[in-house]
Amino acid sequence: MRGAGVGDGLGEGVGDGVGVCARASNGSFDAMRPAAPSAGRLLTKFRLAMFASFARGVLVFFFIWFWGQMQMEMHAEITTEGIKYAGSKLKLLPHILRLAQKVQPLTVFDGFSGTTRVSQAFAQAGYRVIANDIAVWSKVFAECYLLSPRPREHYNDLIDHLNSLPGRHGWFTEHYGNSDGLKKPWQRHNTLKLDAIREKIEQLSGHEKSVALTSLILAMDEVDNTIGHYASYLSEWSPRSYREMKLRLPRIIPTIKEHVVNQADIFDVVSAIDADLAYYDPPYGSNNDKMPPSRVRYASYYHLWTSICLFDKPDLFGKAKRRADTSDTLSASVFEDFRRTDTDRFVVVEAMERLLKQTRTKHIILSYSSGGRATADELNDVIKSSGNLLEVVEVDYQRNVMGGMRWTHEWVRDAEGKNREFLFLIEK
Ligand SMILES: C[S@@+](CC[C@H](N)C(=O)[O-])C[C@H]1O[C@@H](n2cnc3c(N)ncnc32)[C@H](O)[C@@H]1O
């Protein structure tokens, strides 16, 4: 009976002093009537107070809901584009944007911009972006998407003209389109088009060149014969490789903010970066000592994009005909190193420590893909010593679901699972 009296939704006498509660405990509703005339006024006041706090609660709820809807709608309009890329953060964009929103930055530094999908999303969300990557193709993409001064349509004629060029034999067909018994990244009809278009692009400069190169790389990415990188090629032609490559207009972002684009080793620029938030998505070496150091090597995986951007017709080596300057000994990034230092710490974790220390932004969002308990343990120590860990987001990539928030070092345990992706929001 007591339960029914207390929870019937009418609140009869519930807040009317200790005495009422005590009397209610005998289970009789009669016993819950006010004991004195002043008790009635108190009851009315109490009801009003209850109603006011209920109304406040409802208002707050609707405000949060409405704000959430606004954010979702705002982010729903955000569309990015890019090549197939190991470690692309396309699926994490909503989570990255949500974390960024929390710290309300004006300027965001994307230190390892890769495909520039994250930079594109930041720019569309209204932030000023400083994009940086060591790779030349990333610089070209960022120039195209963030710095092109003209509206998209301005480049229409240029793209149409490039599409209309008849194919011709050149450096790319010579090395990647001939039947010499080796597997190929593209079919010949597409390397002939590539040669003709790339030759023509050499006559362009500035933003027009960046737009044309980006469009060309996107088009070649759509007809490739690979599993997503160019360190090896498929033995059977992929169905998409039969298609005719076709340039499309890249989704250039209208220039509202004065974005900046760098192509540099992060350590050469980080201490000079003046921004509110840094987003770091470094490659991360494996902690598996049996893995070759070239597990994911961006320079060698995407050597063909470098050759298209630079058009420098470099010396080549190996069955995949990689650029000579992408051999393991020449182009390793410290973030791709899987080994330990003399002090028995992972090279990549020490690099992260140096990077976080040298960063001047107040907030950092750090991406980490599961690579094993040991790296995660050391990284956790580095994060703790570099600032305040405000939030951890864990995403199960394979199932494409957010595994939930982790507020403590608990995430380290999950780092052993495969296909886990973490985002750390750190306050310096
Ligand atoms: C995991 S990917 C970044 C992916 C990117 N966030 C995206 O969504 O496309 C890592 C990037 O780090 C770049 N990189 C490797 N070492 C670097 C260094 N020392 N300085 C700057 N960039 C580096 C690689 O070229 C690669 O594009």
Keywords for this entry:
alpha/beta, Rossmann fold, 8-stranded mixed β-sheet, 10 strands, globular, binds S-adenosylmethionine
User: How would the global form be characterised?
Assistant: globular
- How much beta, percentage-wise? 5-15%
Broad CATH class of the largest domain: Alpha Beta
Number of strands: 10
CATH architecture term of the largest domain = 3-Layer(aba) Sandwich
H-E string? HHHHEHEHHHHHEHEHHEEHHEHEEHE
The share of residues in helices is 40-55%
- Give the CATH topology of the largest domain: Rossmann fold
Could you list the spans in which at least 5 consecutive residues all have pLDDT below 50?
1-35, 287-294
What summary fits the major beta sheet? 8 strands, mixed
| The number of domains | 2
Name of the CATH homologous superfamily of the largest domain: Vaccinia Virus protein VP39
Query: What is Rg?
Result: 29 Å
Distance between the termini: 56 Å
Class from helix and strand fractions? alpha/beta
Count of helical stretches: 17
Distinct small molecules bound, one entry per kind: S-adenosylmethionine
Q: Order of strands side by side in the largest beta sheet?
A: 3-2-1-4-7-10-8-9
Averaged pLDDT = 84
Helix/strand layout:
Blueprint: H1 2-6, H2 17-24, H3 37-76, H4 93-103, E1 107-110, H5 117-124, E2 128-133, H6 136-147, H7 156-164, H8 171-176, H9 188-201, H10 206-221, E3 260-263, H11 266-269, E4 277-280, H12 298-301, H13 303-310, E5 316-317, E6 322-323, H14 328-331, H15 347-358, E7 363-369, H16 373-386, E8 388-396, E9 401-406, H17 411-414, E10 420-427
Parallel strand pairs: 1-2, 1-4, 2-3, 4-7
Antiparallel strand pairs: 5-6, 7-10, 8-9, 8-10
Helix pairs in contact: 6-10, 9-10, 15-16
The structure holds S-adenosylmethionine.
